Amino acid sequence: xxxxxxxxxxxxxxxxxxxxxxxxxxxxxxxxxxxxxxxxxxxxxxxxxxxxxxxxxxxxxxxxxxxxxxxxxxxxxxxxxxxxxxxxxxxxxxxxxxxxxxxxxxxxxxxxxxx
Length: 115
Ligand code: AMP
What we know:
Order of helices and strands: HEEEHHEE
Number of helices: 3
Number of strands: 5
Distance between the termini: 32 Å
Largest sheet: 5 strands, antiparallel
Radius of gyration: 13 Å
Bound molecules: adenosine monophosphate
């Protein structure tokens, strides 16, 4: 999917917006969340625009596999390898940026069920 001018993660992916990038992969980037909710809070995004995780799964499954692998690598390199991987999909689920991103949350205990 073509880059979208009004999409902040497209702008980060093509270098127009600065970000604290912790990993650059073949088709994904990992960057620190600006409003961290845990000691480690990293977002893993595809460089190309896709709205949601299921849209990415359909259009480019290889990149989704890379995204999940990088999430695990980030959790291992930034902590002990225990982490929560969250994809908010849709406004009601808490998605505020319509460019798929996996939240890698680690470094503390998490409650279940989520709020
Ligand atoms: P979601 O609410 O699941 O769509 O998550 C969007 C996340 O992106 C939130 O946790 C925001 O804090 C984060 N965020 C928004 N803008 C930026 C930015 N420019 N750089 C890094 N993280 C951002």
